[in-house]
Design brief:
The complex is a heterodimer of chains A (449) and B (166). Chain A is α+β, with helices and mostly antiparallel strands and 449 residues long. Chain A is 27% helix and 26% strand. Chain A is built from 13 helices and 25 strands. In chain A, 48% of the residues are buried. In chain B, a hairpin with a 4-residue loop joins β4 and β5. Chain B is globular. By secondary structure, chain B is an alpha+beta fold. Helix content of chain B is 21%, strand content 45%. The longest helix of chain B is centred in the N-terminal third of the chain and has 17 residues. A 6-stranded mixed beta sheet of chain B has the order 2-1-6-5-4-3. Classes of the chains: A alpha+beta (449), B alpha+beta (166). At the A-B interface, β15, α8, β21, α10 and α11 of A face β2, α3 and β7 of B.
């Protein structure tokens, strides 16, 4: 039996049709293709420069199923390597982060410096190696492509990818808003939160961009916000949404929208406004000085940015960096951090952290309602009677080619854009994910089983 | 004259708390806490160290004041949270109870916990384990929880963890 990814996306703009076959979420052959051609066959986000600030610092990460270590060498240069000894394949680095000039493989003691270079093959002289062995390299396998954009580190396990700047394209303009609030750089708040869910990785990919689910999936969170506004509940945890109309069904006028960028990146956004419950309120003037008024308004907006396929930055109830790590066709691991601007006051940082815990944590009051819904979708995706999902249809007549006045104001040129009132809740932005998905998988031969 | 707690009394309180969580007696559970109670489940900085300062590091849960817990109970009962219903079946097993420090009207209690959960919707069973640290205060003639710290050791969370399952 063969499966051709092209058969699973029904993309006919001229007929006003875009449909996705449920099989893409449940078929193990598709998952294998995704790993090979997307996660292990192109640019993926690996981490932040600030995770290895000093010489010889390192951190462990993942590219698809492949364990990776990013290291800063003695000259301060960063590089990424497969975290696997060339001798027998054992993982060389054992901890998630640290500092070491020398990494010794725990299995047979081959050692490597922080530039990935082999420093010793144990008992090499006595080893009676053939000349062919002596002539070959014994260092850690270096990722053929590794580049940084303003502190965001990306790598590719294959050589044949465009330069990172081209891969990010115009979406980079919205990464700029993440790092300059107002100073250059951002930091991960200490404390990483990791969770799994038993469903496909693309459910998380989509949910980050899903404006339609908020009032349906999170009414309990909305009720809590209302309690707190009335002075009941944990008053210390005021929400940035106190001042926003974007999620209220009766709000009028443009409340948000979406942008689609080349290579599958997507932004959805909602108006928030420069209000005092926002942790950035204290530095609004400095942000305006750096980014102008249009840029400031963008920074205060709710923005969910996906850099396809594995990086999502959600700045809404608080600020989250999440990395999607698919474990299997029906199982996904999420690594999540609270991100914050450097130099933030202690009171703003505290407010940001409290808002984060309540909304984003798997122990909070919103994310569990998402992940449990994903698991319900995964079970439902077993259905084959009517395989075509209809969740890609809202906004079909609102989507337009190119940007709009709001993206023009900050010099960003997306492929497509939608301006939305509170109830439009665009779903055409997912088309961008699946067009890139289909483009990447088109290079794959149908898999025979 | 404020009393000093005995280990048997401390155990009774912890077991009662466990039963209230497991059986859904959440109003009585809330009543075990002082008005200004701190409820804290740290996150982990790295493999070996949990976060220590909730003001500048992330926690899994952190509330200052019982009202934060009241929000959680409100949500779990709201009928508006798909994660909260149907509720997983849970058993809190508490052991290794020891008095770390006690004086008249105050006590620090350490214990170990294992929580077994069955998610009935997903037909999936798993467990959480770790250590509790309860700070107790004698108030209005009874021992109340002034601070509860939950150190979760297996912190790769399978989908959901909530106040009743930890």
């Amino acid at each position: 039996m063969t499966i051709d990814p092209a058969d699973l996306i029904d993309d006919r703009p001229e007929d006003g049709v875009f449909r996705v076959d449920r099989a893409i979420f449940r078929d193990a052959r598709i998952f294998e293709l995704e790993m090979r051609h997307i996660f292990e066959g192109g640019w993926v986000f690996l981490g932040l420069e600030s995770q290895a600030p000093r010489h010889h610092d390192f951190f462990a990460t993942q590219a698809g199923r492949v364990p990776i270590v990013v290291m800063r060498d003695g000259d301060g240069r960063l590089a990424a390597f497969v975290n696997s000894c060339p001798h027998k394949g054992a993982q060389v680095v054992q901890t998630r982060s640290g500092n070491a000039r020398l990494h010794v493989c725990p299995y047979h003691s081959w050692s490597f410096d922080s530039a990935g270079k082999n420093r010793a093959v144990k008992w090499q002289r006595a080893g009676c190696y053939a000349e062919a062995f002596e002539r070959s390299g014994h260092g850690l396998a270096r990722l053929p492509r590794f580049e940084a954009y303003r502190g965001f580190l990306f790598g590719s396990l294959v050589e044949d990818v465009p330069p990172l700047a081209e891969h990010l394209g115009e979406a980079a303009r919205f990464l700029d808003f993440v790092v300059g609030q107002p100073e250059e750089g951002l930091e991960l708040v200490p404390g990483a939160v990791t969770f799994t869910y038993d469903a496909n990785w693309k459910l998380q990919l989509e949910n980050c961009s899903d404006a339609y689910h908020f009032t349906s999936t999170h009414p309990s969170y909305i009720r809590i916000m209302e309690r707190r506004q009335k002075g009941e509940g944990a008053v210390a945890v005021r929400s940035v949404w106190d001042q926003s109309q974007a999620w209220r069904e009766d709000a009028e006028g443009v409340q948000g929208g979406s942008y689609s960028f080349e290579h599958g990146h997507v932004l959805n956004w909602g108006r928030i406004g420069v209000g005092e419950t926002h942790p950035l309120h204290e530095c609004a003037a400095a942000i305006t000085a750096r980014h102008g008024e249009a840029g400031r308004d963008w920074i205060f907006n709710m923005r969910n940015l996906t850099i396809f396929p594995n990086l999502q930055i959600a700045e809404n109830a608080s600020s989250q960096l999440r990395v999607i790590q698919p474990l299997g066709v029906g199982r996904t691991l999420m690594r999540t951090w609270c991100i914050a601007p450097r130099g933030e006051s202690s009171s703003a940082r505290r407010q940001r952290i409290r808002q984060y815990e309540d909304f984003f944590n798997p122990s909070g009051m919103a994310t569990p309602d998402d992940t449990v819904a994903y698991e319900g979708c995964q079970r439902g995706h077993a259905g084959r009677i009517d395989p075509w999902l209809q969740g890609y249809s809202r906004g079909m007549t609102a989507s337009r080619t190119g940007g709009n006045s709001l993206s023009d104001a900050v010099g960003a040129s997306p492929l497509r854009s939608v301006l939305a009132d509170a109830q439009l809740c665009d779903e055409t932005l997912y088309h961008n994910y699946y067009r890139e998905w289909a483009r990447r998988l088109a290079s794959a031969k149908p898999v025979r089983k | 004259m404020m009393p000093e707690i005995s280990r048997a009394e401390a155990e009774d309180l912890l077991y009662r708390e466990a039963a209230l969580l497991d059986e859904g007696g959440w109003d009585d559970w809330l009543a075990l806490f002082t008005e200004d109670a701190v409820f804290w489940m740290p996150a982990w900085r790295d493999e070996e160290s949990p976060t220590a300062d909730p003001n500048c590091e992330l926690s899994l849960i952190y509330y200052e004041g019982r009202r934060g817990l009241e929000d959680r109970v409100f949500r779990a009962r709201s009928g508006q949270s798909v994660a909260s219903h149907p509720r997983p079946r849970c058993v809190h097993c508490i052991s290794n109870v020891r008095l770390i420090e006690c004086s008249a009207g105050n006590a620090e209690i350490g214990s170990a916990f294992t929580i077994f959960l069955h998610d009935v919707r997903a037909e999936r069973t798993h467990h959480f384990f770790g250590r509790y640290h309860h700070t107790l205060r004698h108030e209005e003639g009874t021992w109340r929880i002034a601070r509860k710290k939950i150190l979760l050791l297996n912190d790769t969370i399978p989908t959901v963890v909530d106040f009743y399952s930890i």
